[in-house]
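Hi there,

I know you've been waiting on this one. I reran it after we fixed the sequence typo, so this is the corrected version. Both the input and the resulting structure follow.
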Amino acid sequence: MKLSLLKTKYIAYVLALIIIGGFLFNVLITRQGTIMHKYFIETPTTYNIERAERLTESIYKSFKQEISSPTLENIRVFIDKYNDIPFLSVNFVYRDDKGIMKSVDGEVKEIDILSAEYVYPIKQGSREIGTLLVYDINKEYKKGLQEYSNMLNVTRIFFGILLFLLLSILIFHEYSSKIEKEKILAEYQAVHDGLTGLYTQKYFKEFLEREIDRSKRYNRPLSLIMCDVDYFKQFNDTYGHLAGDKALQEVSRIIQENVRTSDIVARYGGEEFAILLMEAGLEEAKSVVTRLKSLTDQALEVATRIKDKIEHTKIDVDDKQITLTISMGLSYYDGVSEYKLEYFISAADHALYESKNSGRNTITIFDPKTKEFTKIS
């Protein structure tokens, strides 16, 4: 569940980053296109400073020739006419009656005058009436080039950050997935035996204690089978511990394959195994006695199947085929009387010891009420 949620968040983060990145990318590209069109496409591609100077002188001479009696109106007409010349921009500034600096297009700032490349005072008689300003648009071209270069740098930085964020998310995702896998593995290893893959004794006891409490509340019977591989120490001494491990793995496999999906199997000790059987279906309509008998019959069927399968399974050891047998003890809890974990395990253990004392390769049932043993085979 947590891993699935983590993947969903990871996908959401990546999609959000792609959408935001795509939007900002479009904005940056559009801005660059605007700069390119303004400064490098609309502006003619040829520029000659000497030609600009000649044109400026020509504009000044034309101003003196065409405007013999300067008025704001005829000066404005002149300015509009000569502003179409490539690479040059013309303006006329003057002071009004209040001494405020203005241009024919409106108010003007001092920086606008200082930034002009060519400045021509215009006189009417002996009185200076204003100033003709000619701007070299090449300066605007350079400004545009710098602005475009800055925008390219911003774009590079933006995509560097975007790439860093994407890599960070990917690294975080991989790291989180690794942590989650390690956590799942650690949780699995904490409750499973490393050799057989069955539950550990500790987990089995904790689970069994919870099931006994649940059994008391709902009057649901339980059956417990304790198993022990016969003469296993002798097998280890004869064929070695590696062969012993292989034998335990084979026994574990047979047990797992022959229990019900609802049953819990654990490696209880070195060569000892425990199987807990619970009611697989809803049996409330039947009496406790009937349900207990039904579960006990199922447990006996499972035990018999496991015992027979192990007895007839050959294990390859040093080019030899070895067979093993197993002793089993079975007990039950009716879910009605007061019962403790230790009593339940002890009852099944007593049945197992009885099987051992009766020649091994045997199933024995212990009745906790009558304290009697019943040897099955």
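Quick highlight: Residues 73 and 104 are 8 Å apart (CA to CA).

Best,
R. S.
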